[in-house]
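Folding follows sequence. Below is one example:
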Amino acid sequence: MTVDKLVASPAAAVAAIPDGASLAVGGFGLAGIPWFLIEALLEQGAGDLTIVSNNCGVDGAGLGLLLEARKIRKVIASYIGENKEFGRQFLAGEVTVELTPQGTLAERLRAGGSGIGAFYTPTGVGTVVAEGGLPWRYNSDGTVALASPPKEVRRFFGKEMVLEEAIVTDFALIRAAVVDKAGNCKFHAAAQNFNPPAAMSGRMTIVEAEKVVEVGELAPDEIHLSGIFVKSIVGLTPEQAARKEIEQRTVRARPEQLAHQ
């Protein structure tokens, strides 16, 4: 039997995402994010969303678009980043933000996809991450409306470790460089950071693929994520696949240019 998980468009892929859904979203900054799935979700209109991602895009791009449209209720992320609107909404009490150490966040997503309910890690021991009190939501007057609870701490191999719960989301949106029609994914460079664990975390994972190939064209050691985690695939056009923006571009003169100044 031939497996083919292709859908017609980003709009068709996200059509079933309802208000109140939780989504794990791949990418790191703007690298490797599912540009077209995010924009299709914005157009679709679902709101009151919980987003789990390394950060929340930037002003005017990526998940920042959903944030600016007030479609996000809660974010679980490792940092605010360069998104000024994200920081403003958090400090104004307009969005709940559960900040989580970056490596812990990746492992919480991976654990969720592996059927592991929780795990112990030394990261965060002796800080508000473990002891509680980290602001998750503010009141409009700047006081803390909701703070993180204390977490269980135990000693293993002579070292204290904090218990972290796994994350399982309703949906996941990711981007891959090459995907076969069964959903087996190959990622390029930094896109491997959060796309695989985000995909594992989602009960219904949608991938936008820069290139779609037939089953068998990917060698086994090229596959970074098994197709068992993928529900549907959106194939991008070459023009769409070329869209790879970054947050900032800093340039300097080449040494030979400096020598002639």
Observations:
- Residues 144 and 221 are 49 Å apart (CA to CA).
